């Protein structure tokens, strides 16, 4: 570092310092994700280019400076993250062109790119330029949803949102008729994708389409808005009530059947006991009769002896 400074001071003293001029025709470059971008940078120098030094740096919107490309007297260094999609300048010492190409641009590649050119003894003048790169991304397919009771007189809110898109997409709602012709909507809409329909009526039922758009493209989604949604809720409630009634009837029938079964068993048991009692009574009377008859016979036998 010190030797370089001494050399520059010495060259300035002897009057050999020349001017170098670095320029670019585009201070701002716009590109869509997935596309290739050309970052133009040219320079003018009066000195021989055997000591030519070129460096490209990149400063993302939320990070520190990263080196993209380095050239020194014919030697080239390209950092690993850029090797597979970087095209360096061809023969920059001869063409005086330091332009580069970066392939397959992504949202993370947006930021400020700086082209620096040094060529001893040309050390004075304008030695660098900045290029601001915007990477646009078309909106992803939005998600449409409906909130609220889709019934006449109620408030219904339609929501539309895309997960990706740069710059941030804006949203518009339109109503489609049977011929898929767009018709104006009567609800209050916002650019963030929210539309409110207050006191919805049958005239506002139908198919609605949301358009998410930015400078890179447009994406759409549709949603059906009709009273069938509310009828479905009512039908579900009716079916649930009917099922509840059926369940109650089954429980009552089971209890009644169980009680009846127990009563039937009790009656059968009682009848069995009565039959056993009636069967035992004649046997006892027969035994009494037989005993009485035997006694009488014994008494009659004793009388003659007397």
TrEMBL record:
Stored SMART domains: IG, IGc2, IGv
Domain Ig-like: 18-132, 139-226
Membrane topology classification: Single-pass type I membrane protein
Compositionally biased tracts (Basic and acidic residues): 272-286
The keyword Transmembrane is annotated on this UniProt entry: yes
Key words, A-Z: Disulfide bond, Immunoglobulin domain, Membrane, Repeat, Signal, Transmembrane, Transmembrane helix
Region of interest: Disordered: 272-306
Xref: Gene3D superfamilies: Immunoglobulins (2.60.40.10)
Record's protein name: V-set and immunoglobulin domain-containing protein 1
Signal peptide range: 1-19
Superkingdom as given in the UniProt entry: Eukaryota
Cellular localisation: Membrane
GO biological process: epithelial cell morphogenesis; maintenance of gastrointestinal epithelium
């Amino acid at each position: 570092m010190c030797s370089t400074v001494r050399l520059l001071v010495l060259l300035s003293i002897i009057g050999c310092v020349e001017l170098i001029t670095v320029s670019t025709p585009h201070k701002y470059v716009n590109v869509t994700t997935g596309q290739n971008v050309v970052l133009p940078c040219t320079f003018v120098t009066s000195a021989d280019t055997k000591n030519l030094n070129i460096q490209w740096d990149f400063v993302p919107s939320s990070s520190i400076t990263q080196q993209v490309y380095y050239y020194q007297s014919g030697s080239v260094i390209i950092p690993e993250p850029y090797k597979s999609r970087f095209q360096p300048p061809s023969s920059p010492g001869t063409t005086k062109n330091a332009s580069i190409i970066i392939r397959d641009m992504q949202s993370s590649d947006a930021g400020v790119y700086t082209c620096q050119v040094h060529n001893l003894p040309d050390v004075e003048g304008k030695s660098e330029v900045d290029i601001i790169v915007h990477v646009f991304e078309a909106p992803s397919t939005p998600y449409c949803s409906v909130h609220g009771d889709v019934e006449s007189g109620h408030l219904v809110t339609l929501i539309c949102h895309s997960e990706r898109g740069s710059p941030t997409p804006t949203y518009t709602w339109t109503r489609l008729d049977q011929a898929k012709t767009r018709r104006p909507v009567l609800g209050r809409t916002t650019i963030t994708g929210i539309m409110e329909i207050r006191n919805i009526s049958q005239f506002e039922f139908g198919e609605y389409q949301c358009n998410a758009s930015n400078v890179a493209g447009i994406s759409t989604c549709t949603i059906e808005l009709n009273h069938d949604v509310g009828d479905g809720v009512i039908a579900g409630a009716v079916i649930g009530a009917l099922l509840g009634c059926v369940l109650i009837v089954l429980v009552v029938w089971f209890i009644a059947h169980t009680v009846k079964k127990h009563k039937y068993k009790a009656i059968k048991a009682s009848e069995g006991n009565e039959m056993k009692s009636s069967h035992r009574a004649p046997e006892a009377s027969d035994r009494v009769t037989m005993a009485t008859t035997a006694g009488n016979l014994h008494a009659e036998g004793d009388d003659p002896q007397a």
